[in-house]
Amino acid sequence: VQLQASGGGLVQTGGSLRLSCVDSGRIVGINVRGWYRQARGKERELVATIISNGLTKYEDSVYGRFTISRDIAEDILYLQMDSLKPEDTAVYYCNTKTIYGREYWGQGTQVTVSS
Q: What is the pLDDT averaged over residues 6-33?
């Protein structure tokens, strides 16, 4: 099973990026999918999640600016990031948790927001 994240890059303050996470291994029994981020010198933090029934949750600082979504048929997880701020600069990781207690991580994609 492999999660492949992409879509990161360098953008100016106020810009947008869309991250994608492809599940090439077709994980079975998905319960929660999410995006995390880790800024340099800081702990990894949860950014947004989407559960099996489509319910979404966001970390307070990204609420209203980021949108998590999924393409169930293609097994792709997205994170649309708008109105980006320098404090959003981090490596972003996708994550999948299953009903069987297993957890999978993508390799991370760098997002850099210049001021």
A: 94
